[in-house]
Amino acid sequence: MSSVTKTTATTQNKVDEIDKIRLNLADDWKVLGSVYDLLKNGKAFCVSDADRDAVKIVDFKQPNEMKQLIDLSIDENKTHTIAEIEDLCRLVIKYSVKTNHGRFHNQLFGQMDPYGLIGQWITDALNASAYTYEVGPVFSLMETEIIRTVCQLAGYAEGDGIFSPGGSMSNMYGLVLARYSRHPQVKTAGLFGMRPLALFTSEESHYSFVKAAHWLGLGADNCVVVKTNERGQMLTNDLEAKILKAQESGCEPFFVNATAGTTVLGAFDDLNAIADVCEKYGLWLHVDACLGGSALLSYRNRHLLAGLDRTNSFAWNPHKSLGAPLQCSLFLTRERDLLTRCNSIQVNYLFQQDKFYDVSYDTGNKSVQCGRKIDAFKFWLMLKARGYGSFGRLLDHAIDISKVLVEKIKQRGSERFRLVLEDNQYMNVCFWYIPKALRGLEETPEWRERLYTVAPKIKERMAYSGTVMIGYTPLQYRGLGNFFRMVFTCFPVLEEAELDFILNEIERLGEECEY
Amino acid sequence: MSSVTKTTATTQNKVDEIDKIRLNLADDWKVLGSVYDLLKNGKAFCVSDADRDAVKIVDFKQPNEMKQLIDLSIDENKTHTIAEIEDLCRLVIKYSVKTNHGRFHNQLFGQMDPYGLIGQWITDALNASAYTYEVGPVFSLMETEIIRTVCQLAGYAEGDGIFSPGGSMSNMYGLVLARYSRHPQVKTAGLFGMRPLALFTSEESHYSFVKAAHWLGLGADNCVVVKTNERGQMLTNDLEAKILKAQESGCEPFFVNATAGTTVLGAFDDLNAIADVCEKYGLWLHVDACLGGSALLSYRNRHLLAGLDRTNSFAWNPHKSLGAPLQCSLFLTRERDLLTRCNSIQVNYLFQQDKFYDVSYDTGNKSVQCGRKIDAFKFWLMLKARGYGSFGRLLDHAIDISKVLVEKIKQRGSERFRLVLEDNQYMNVCFWYIPKALRGLEETPEWRERLYTVAPKIKERMAYSGTVMIGYTPLQYRGLGNFFRMVFTCFPVLEEAELDFILNEIERLGEECEY
Hints:
The structure is a homodimer.
Chain A: H1 3-30, H2 35-41, H3 49-54, H4 63-69, H5 82-95, E1 104-105, H6 114-126, H7 137-154, E2 160-164, H8 167-182, H9 186-189, E3 197-202, H10 208-215, E4 223-226, H11 236-248, E5 252-259, H12 271-281, E6 284-288, E7 313-316, E8 329-333, H13 338-343, H14 376-386, H15 388-411, E9 417-419, E10 428-433, H16 445-451, H17 454-465, E11 469-475, E12 480-487, H18 496-510
Parallel strand pairs in A: 1-11, 3-4, 3-5, 5-6, 6-7
Antiparallel strand pairs in A: 2-8, 7-8, 9-10, 10-12, 11-12
């Protein structure tokens, strides 16, 4: 074959390949019709209580084993048939963690609300982006409607807000807005030559403020840590002392973060007391309510957020307690128009001003992102299906059942279980399990060190048994080593018997280990 | 009824409500089985060429009309049945833009690859988060595998990377990493008191650098704009002049962004020439390859990225040309370990060091986010199904067909159509349509002003006719008013006849308007 013929043949092959892909697309799309069955058969969601016993949360494999079980390699020219792709999907489902198993309590989120997933699937299939009304007409109105409703609940008379890709980003929005509000010239001139700006947040607060301080050019050292009381709430007198100290050292305090629902203990800072301090010193008050913001929906527990109407902004993640699919995070601010002024710039190819509709519906320019995933519809659908009051009552139930767990832990006796806090404010319950081998011994520092190895060891057993997943953590600033942190969520809707299962399982697995 | 009895009754109601929600969950989950049919019947994806003619891309309604058509309000106690929820979903699908219609060319993305959507649906259903191997074992290995492969293709011998929520964020990763690499103390001390740091990017580049300069505390004014040549490529001599000028004015240059595939013209900066300048002045070279990074997969067009191996980092969005569902954005860096050192902090409740597996698989601490949506699997599944070479050839096809469009535009004559660029480097084709009313007139400034109203007017007709969607934009720094920007993508796989349809439709709609 001459080289010319060869080239032609190769070109022809390529054309054939492209045509083949084009003609196969109709079949490729049809595979979507089997995704639900793949997931259902793979037990990706537990639809009944009986499933919980029958289905493993995780079939844990070490990374090197996993690499043997699934051919992860991606290749230039190796293709896979639809049947092979379905087989791969089955494997992925098999070896992934079933976070929708009713016994996944490993993070701050639990089971999803199925209406959330319905909304997410539809959003994905429509594949819109949240910048303009033009591309996401229905979704942009929904985002606005949710923000309006949440502002109302929060007592922000004329607030504004945006969906962002997670709580860390929502907290960053708060910092950027506070800084812009105080020093609008930072937008153009940067921070160079300025007196160091200082922000304040409690030792129990989320690490995103430290990361944000780095990214935003403020510096982690200017993220000042405020002490907390026994329950994990910010000490207002320490806040005030730290503000004064920062001023004395030449810094300019500008921002206080209060936490509504800390990551470990679920503590709520006293917003009114902190607002008093912020008013006194003229500081922006942001609330990291990523976990605790859901209390807004509950009559009985809304008091945890008392004073929210006096704050300047807050972050809230419906993807935690409420069961919205990841990512669903809101940033809200009391200040009208500020978000637009802060983040907008002239963008001619996207936010044209000569459009044929009211461009105030193009909300994308408020964002630091350009393309932005639609996170509003799934949450809207959940609220529409159940009414937001139901979520409030599901939250009440989660808090109630967490108190029942506390009682059950107490009933089992301090020989076997030890609580980190006796009275939790929210639905986080933190505790140690004391295995038989450690009972009745003198509680020396060495004994404690052994105790702190218990949770990680049980955690390993949990992974291999696949019966339950509960997180663990130390609280180093309190000198406390590893303990379990069980966080309840709206879904699964737990009954009391489930709590006995969990404690029994910890005891059972705990006695399989050596300490 | 006494108040005591009343309270008990209310409590009972609440318990009943919670039980009812719990018992209904099995039915709620089943609705997911009908989502595919809802979407298919709602024509959310066009599976055949015939669909294109039969299905409207959008049934456009003004915001106030839309509010009448869909009851957007969310209420505390109003609930909706499954049937009502399905009806609402039908309306949402009906009034949303069908971005998977083969004639949606309004943004830098087009139709999705169905394998991407399959992966996305499974990812959503499993609802994992990308922080730890523990919660996303399969997905964390896939992310690593994709990063490894892309680094190899880019010529990064020992690179690293991360998935981020969009190109703007990926570009921010580049800026933060460059700054940390040069001045690691910024992480702790911030930018205060430093000499202003300056970054350089072309007038054609994406606006995310201006937004990032604001957020990161660098200031938009320290984002120095470099001129471009006729084709939209950065002028290296102007870059060098601007660097010197910044130095003279007391700034410290630290970062250059080169663009591979500009938003409007699809221009590729000369990476080798810019790398020479960066080496000379010791600057970090980042590439915004959000649009153009897909050329990495093509033998024939990879030359557009020549010199990528000499850069320090780049951003690439497979959710643009390749048809991965939004959001799918990669940040890659040549520097090993730097990403971890830059972004990691000690997080005890998540990144415990006493785990029972190799914690180097916990990649979440490299991120500025905490919870992070899994964006790797959908892309992995696409690459697995087709092999990445196929995407390269689909991209070649998209570029080829864009050249055919250019030819067709030329054939219709400069009386009717006018190109912004005669020879596009990538698959962006920019052009004006000259309606009959404007033909044969003297091309005065007033005539131009009238010409610049044509695209917005046709755009309005497109929305109401629902036959095709193509974006428009001005290029103000060149003194050019509104023109159409048609950007080709891997999907739909277009044939030549489709181009005639598009041009005919522009002519048809164009003659319906008054100028």
